[in-house]
Amino acid sequence: MSKGRFGKFGGQFISETLMPTIQELEESYNHFSQNEDFNRELTDLFNNYAGRPSLLYFAENMTRDLKGAKIYFKREDLNHTGAHKINNVLGQVLLAEKIGKTRIIAETGAGQHGVATATACALLNMECVIFMGEHDIKRQALNVYRMKLLGADVISVTSGTGTLKDAVNETMKEWSTRMDDTHYAIGSAMGPHPFPTLVRDFQSVISREIKEQILDTEGRLPDVVLACLGGGSNAIGSFYHFIDDKEVRLIGCEGAGHGVDQPNTAAALQAGRTGIYHGMKTIIAQNKDGQVNPVYSISAGLDYPGVGPEHAYLADIKRAEYVGINDEEAVQAFEYFSRTEGIIPAIESSHAIAQAIKMAPEMDKNQIMVVTLSGRGDKDCAAIARYRGEEIYD
Ligand SMILES: *Cc1c(COP(=O)(O)O)cnc(C)c1O
C-alpha cells in the first residue's frame, strides 16, 4: 500500500467499514483540489470571511533586543476565530458540501478546533456535532458555550481519560456508523490518507503568503522558518512551499512539558518511536510495550502523543529539524512577546517564539527568521496566571 505515503510514514490504517467513505473523500478531493470554481470559492472565504492574507509583521523591538537575525511573524492570530485552524475547516466543510454531505462531525481537545468547525458550519449551513472528552468539557466551559452558541451539539466522551485521544476514537466510531450524510473534519495534518495531504494543502496558504510577502519586503527567502507542532498543521502549512528551497532551515517546536527526558513529554519526535495510531503510521510517544503514553504539555493544542506523518518523514530525511520546548521556556516567551511587541501569543505559538529567542542572537544581523504566530493568547491568560500562582477568576 503506497497511497498517501511520506517515505515509510502515512498510509490508511482503517477498518473495512470506513474504506468506501475514505475512498470517496480521496477521489472527491483529487477532483475538487484541481477545480477552478472550488478554489475560487475557497479563496473568497479565506479573503472575505477569515481575513486573509494575514500580515507578515516585522518585530522591530524584539529584533533590536535580541541583537541578531531580523525577526518576522506570520500573523495567523489575526484570522477570524484567532488561529490558523479556520483555514483547514473552511476547506474541509466546503469540500464536504460539494460532495453532498449535510452533517459535519469533529473531535476537539481544548475546544479550539471545535469552535472553528462550528463557525464554518454556521456559515455554510451544515449540521455540526462535536465530540469532546468529559474532562475537557469541564476545563473548557467557555469554548463549550461558544460551540453551542454557534449551533453545534457537543457530545461528552466518557471513555478512557475523557480527553482528546478518546474524542478522536469516538468521532471515528461515529463516522463508521453514519457515513452517507456525514464528513469527519479532522483537526490537524494527521490520520489516514487523504487527511494529512488535504489538511496540509489547505494550510499551505501560510507558506505561499510568507514567500510572496518576504520576497516583496526583503527581496529574498528567509534563512529559517519556525512553527510550533502539535499534530503539525500550522507547521506543515508554514513549511510546505519552502521544502524545495534547501537553503531555508525549517524548524518545528514541540511541547516538551516538564522536559523531553520525562516519560509524559508530548515531544513525540524527540522521544517517540514508529507505530500505528489513529489510522496512520508515524512517530508516537509510547512506552516499551508499545502503549501510547499519556502525554502532557502546558499547551492543550500541543499535548498530542503523535505527529502528522509528513513531519515524521521530514525528520527522517533531515529536511526539517525538530526541537522540544518545555513549559517554563514557553511561558517566559509568552510574557516576553506580550511586553516587547504588544501581542499576546497563544501558548502553542509561544513554543516557536521561545526557539526564536534562543536562535536569533546566534544569527547574523542580515539573516532573516520567520516565525508563525499560529494563534492569539486570550484563551491562555487564566492558565498562565495560574502557572505563575495567581487566580484571575474566583
Ligand atoms: C491547535 C493549535 C495548534 C496545534 O495544532 P497544529 O495542528 O500542530 O498546528 C497550534 N497553535 C494553535 C494556536 C492552535 O490552536
From TrEMBL:
Protein's recorded name: Tryptophan synthase beta chain
This protein's GO CC annotations: cytoplasm
TM helices/strands, residue ranges: none
Biological function: The beta subunit is responsible for the synthesis of L-tryptophan from indole and L-serine.
Record pathway: Amino-acid biosynthesis; L-tryptophan biosynthesis; L-tryptophan from chorismate: step 5/5
Modified residues (N6-(pyridoxal phosphate)lysine): 85
Lineage: Bacteria, Bacillati, Bacillota, Bacilli, Lactobacillales
NCBIfam families, per database record: trpB
GO molecular function, one term: tryptophan synthase activity
